[in-house]
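User: I'm writing a tutorial on reading structure tokens. Could you give me a worked example: one chain, its sequence, then its tokens, then a sentence or two explaining what the tokens reveal?
Assistant: Sure. Here is the example chain.
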Amino acid sequence: MNDLLYAFRTLRRAPGFTATAALTLALGIGANTAIFSMINAVLLTPLPYRDASRLVRLNEGRAGFELNVSYPNFRDWRARTRVFEDMAV
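And here are its predicted structure tokens:
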């Protein structure tokens, strides 16, 4: 208990250090929370689709230079392919 009282007295004597320490802790906790929230949403939470492990993404182009598929090309792929159960944009 004496150590805790000593810590509070020391922090009260140096308000600049106390503000800097509190701000550093707040930024660290906030950044950690934001990063975990993003990782949780993107990597840890399962996708809201049935059989999500069967989803694939198709691109046009060559390795290292991928382009998004244009809508007319998508319509052609959807009409002509029999490989996939269904396709969506």
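What the tokens reveal: The chain has two domains: 2-44, 48-89. The chain is about 60% helix and 5% strand.
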